[in-house]
Design goal:
By secondary structure, the protein is α/β, with parallel strands linked by helices. It contains twelve helices and eleven strands. InterPro entries: HTH_LacI, LacI/GalR-like_sensor, Lambda_DNA-bd_dom_sf, Peripla_BP_I.
Length: 338
């Protein structure tokens, strides 16, 4: 049956028409999962009636016809991305699948690039903040398995993330209560990613718990070492430094430390510095960075495992997997320093 001029029906529209869930239509369309014979017949009849994506139906997709998983990040540089990709690749290789990696760098044509990538892989992991919600919805509606990584939970889309808010609350309260620091600055841009936004929430929450006034605005900066160095240099040039710089990630924190040392400030005696991630460089004696450990490689592994289950039709769409984080105390906050 040839397509008419208007667009074909979506999974959601077919599901509404015959009174079943979107997940049921997706399972039938992909030839996977447990569905009753009567329901399967009704779904297949509706699929035929609407000529719904025939190239994606049946056992071809169930057998992973492309032999690859896709993963989408805003960029690819830095230890965080390499660790997450490493864990994701481990699970893909175990399943005998290749990995297609897309760094969008937030280009204007990112949406089209991602949709093209989704058509060339069996399932797609997308980092939070890379795509607008409506693009994610369209991918799911057309039957593409999609898992969100390091994202806000979204209805109907499986999500894997780490615990950010309470971790950053604990870190900030350590500086406020245990060290008695009274002037803290958050170094990072809450608008750049869901993770950064959650950490800013934890930072302000800790001030409320401590009965202290939080800064109205963060020091807005990207998440790279060079951006941290430049931003903190500008902050120091503008006036006296805060007593502690609470950075959104370790790379920014290391850039902040270099900027402080470059201007003759001692860390932590003059200015304490903390990060988030616990990248390998954070644990070196020369760095000694107080931070929050997040299981970056496990984040990648769990994302791939959940995506493989989504491809097979065995994962609930509402799943929101949150991995635990851990406060790591080293010398940069002032602990153990006379």
């Amino acid at each position: 049956m040839a397509r008419r001029g208007k667009r074909g029906a979506t999974l959601q529209e077919i599901a509404q028409e015959i009174g079943v869930s979107v997940a049921t239509v997706s399972r039938v369309a992909r030839g996977v999962g447990q569905v009753s014979d009567d329901t399967r017949r009704r779904v297949l009849a509706a699929i035929e009636r609407h000529d719904f994506r025939p190239s994606r139906l049946g056992s071809g997709l169930a057998k992973r016809s492309h032999g690859a998983l896709g993963i989408v990040f805003p960029g690819l540089s830095g230890p965080y991305y390499s660790e997450v990709i490493g864990g994701f690749e481990e699970e893909a290789v175990r399943a005998q699948l290749a990995v297609v990696i897309l760094g969008t760098h937030l280009l204007r044509e990112s949406d089209e690039l991602v949709r093209d990538t989704a058509a060339r892989v069996d399932g797609l992991a997308v980092m939070g903040g890379v795509l607008p919600d409506d693009v994610v919805d369209r991918l799911r509606d057309r039957g593409d398995p999609v898992v969100l990584l390091a994202s806000r939970p979204r209805a109907g889309v499986p999500t894997v993330r780490v615990e950010n808010v309470s971790a950053f609350d604990r870190l900030t309260r350590h500086l406020l209560a245990d060290h008695g620091y009274d002037r803290l600055a958050f170094v990072g841009d809450p608008g750049s990613s869901p993770d950064a936004d959650y950490r800013w929430q934890g930072f302000t929450q800790a001030h409320r718990h401590a009965g202290a006034g939080a800064p109205a605005e963060p020091v807005r900066v990207g998440l790279t070492q060079s951006e941290g160095f430049i931003a903190v240099n500008r902050l120091l040039a503008a006036g006296p430094p805060p007593r502690a710089l609470v950075c959104a990630n370790d790379e920014t924190a290391i850039g902040a430390v270099l900027a402080l040392l470059d201007r003759g400030h001692r860390v932590p005696q003059d200015v304490a510095v903390t990060g988030f991630d616990d990248i390998p460089m954070a644990g070196l004696p020369v760095s000694g960075l107080t931070t929050v450990h997040q299981p970056m490689r496990e984040l990648g592994r769990e994302t791939a495992r959940l995506l493989l289950r989504d491809i097979e039709g065995t994962v609930p769409a509402a799943v929101d997997r949150v991995l635990e984080t851990q406060l790591v105390i080293r010398g940069s906050c002032g602990c153990g320093v006379a």
